[in-house]
Task: structure prediction
Amino acid sequence: MPTKTPTLTSLGAFALVAALCWWLAGVLVPLVLGAVLALVLAPTVDRWTPRLKSRGRAIAVSVGSIVLLFVLLTAIAVPMMIAEARHWTVAVTGEGGSAMTGIDHPLDYGSFADPDQTDWHGAQLAAAAQTQGAPPEIVRLLRDVAAPGRDHTLAEVVGDRDGDGRLEPGYARRLRLLQRDHSSAMGRAITWLDRNGVLRGVRNAVEQTLSRDRIAKLLSGPQLSTAGDVGMRVLGSVGDVLMTLLGVTVTALLTPIYAFLLLLALPRWRSALPNYLPQDQRALWLRIGGRIVASISAFVRGRVVVCSIVGAITAIGWALLGVRLGILAGLGVGALTLVPLANVLVLVPVLVMSVIECATGARGWGWLLGVLGIYAVGQLAESVLNPLIVGDAVELDLLTMIVALTIGGALAGFAGLVLAVPVAATLRILAEELWLPRWRAWAENGSPAP
Result:
């Protein structure tokens, strides 16, 4: 016969505490992340404590390793993001100046001349390039290049702002040229969209969103009357950005501290918890708590491993193919894999850029298939590794997880996304242990279990 379930008052108190934590989730983000990190590191700490002869040392080594890894990744990622942003700016705005007039595809002049050289003669560069079979536009570019200036490289003189040996027209210009090219399938598709009002509708929506009146209303509100008001609004926006950066910094600093303190207090909580549970319900609640902790910790550890593998496959593959922002986009795919279907948010802009590359002749269409293939390999790896590494840790189907994440994000933003799956898993375990047995007994016998 099932153990007697807790009273309605106990369940009400539990629900009240859970609702209060959910309501304060935005403030408790560092604590939530610290608790997640503590759950992930708890087995490692337990394993290393006997070897290091101190739980504090084991916690310090475990948390310190995570912090060191985060610092190293940040030190690598920030310069990479700056470099990628520079390349992205070049890709959008274009480069080469008058040298790219009438040319709608990148010029790989670096295959026939050294972009870093500081001494050259245009006629000699053009003759050498022509001998090597360079296209006519590259021969013309090198023949017309100005004489070297003081300490100026060839890349600087021809307008190669990122110095990679390629002059690239901007995506916007390449799209305009493509739209006028009615001989290509892509040009005809763009023309069809324009003729049927799709592009016009998009332009109108963007113009309405970015209209001067709309922006003024957003910036100033109903009280706009003087330039001083606008200045205060701008300062307020700057203050909001600074406060956001401060919040991120505080979260990054507090998360490992909370994880350290929670791991340090965990043994005391384990030993003290039974003393606060009614004796007739102690076994039940200890079993429930053990199942919840084991389920959530296994899920988090497994998903982190799976998403890291997916991110590595996608980032390395796209980087080798030469996809714009390939490394960062691939890592973004891995990070968003934590949320089912969310990595499509990264895939769409990558595909848009790749289609433009192929449609304007910068790449072959087989290259686009390679971009999609790398993404497919990452998703296939997730589908194969997820049941092997994560297994049935939370025993939630994909539909339930998507609904839980959607509700969590809507109610509590980022903290809701972090809490959604653990809360859903907790509710499932509570239902299995507390409510479903009584429901089954009522269905079979016509009365609930005692």
Q: What stands out?
A: Residues 1-6, 214-235 have pLDDT under 50 and may be disordered. Residues 401 and 421 are 6 Å apart (CA to CA). The longest helix spans residues 398-445.
